[in-house]
Write a structure and sequence with these properties.
The protein has four helices and two strands; from the N terminus they run αβααβα. The protein is mainly alpha-helical and 69 residues long. The longest helix is centred in the middle third of the chain and has 10 residues.
């Protein structure tokens, strides 16, 4: 939990998934991690291109390091 707090404080935390948003959010709530990931969840089906395109991973990575290529 300490690592989640530190990552959250520095804005360097994200959840990237190929599952649908409902399932991801439900699981994060169940394990008590949802507060750390609110507005930091990236879902494959919500991207312009889904698998096998890397769009969801790139979105999560750009959140972690804005301006990185």
């Amino acid at each position: 939990m300490t690592q989640c707090k530190a990552a959250h404080a520095s804005q360097r935390i994200a959840c990237v998934s190929g599952a649908d948003r409902f399932k991801v959010e439900m699981q994060l709530v169940q394990v008590g991690l949802m507060p750390w990931f609110e507005n930091r969840i990236f879902i494959d089906q919500e991207m312009p291109r889904s698998k096998p395109a890397p769009d969801v991973c790139l979105a999560g990575a750009s959140h972690l390091a804005p301006g990185a290529k």
